[in-house]
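S.,

Sequence below, as promised.
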Amino acid sequence: MISSRFSLPVVLILALALVPTIIHNYMGLMIDDGLLLTRINSRLGAFASEPTSRKDQWVKDIFDSDDWFERSYRNQEGVQIRLFAARSYDHKRLYHHPELALSYGQNLKDDGIASIQLGQEKIPVHILRRTSGKGVSAYALYYDGTFIENPIAHQVLDSLNLLVSGRKQLTIFYLSEQNAGGAEDFAGSPAAAVLVDAIRGFLSQ
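The prediction came back faster than expected:
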């Protein structure tokens, strides 16, 4: 039996506990920032592109994304870079080992985080290199005005925010260059230039 003097605090606590349930289960609140990946130019700097054969349903099944593209960018020197970009409200699908789906069958090792410059901002880029031979993959994560270096910490903080607010999309920019050298400085590579131009085009909307 609960004393009547505790009734009001108990009611208030239960009401607060219902807030995230109402927001996400009943209202399904999602916040759209109006940005679209498909508005990124098909030509980035010296690189022209063409779409790959990636299918909508595959991206929906793997990443739960409706706003995405995958293009193969190539310059006049024959350097070819594949760029995949997607947005999803299901953050874990994007940040949890995206290479398993996007670089399927390749033996990649974590090569740390590189920093690339976009204006006054430094963007953390996760680098993956082939365990043997040439080839590099890399990805950057963007969420609500911020580029994310530690996606696990981001998920924890975002879970707290979701207690009182709607869901926002996470964006991934994932690229791969098959002929990149194993010791190449990513920040000065053609792949980094394509990534910077793609992000700039996305944020300029």
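The chain has two domains: 1-31, 32-203.

Coffee later?
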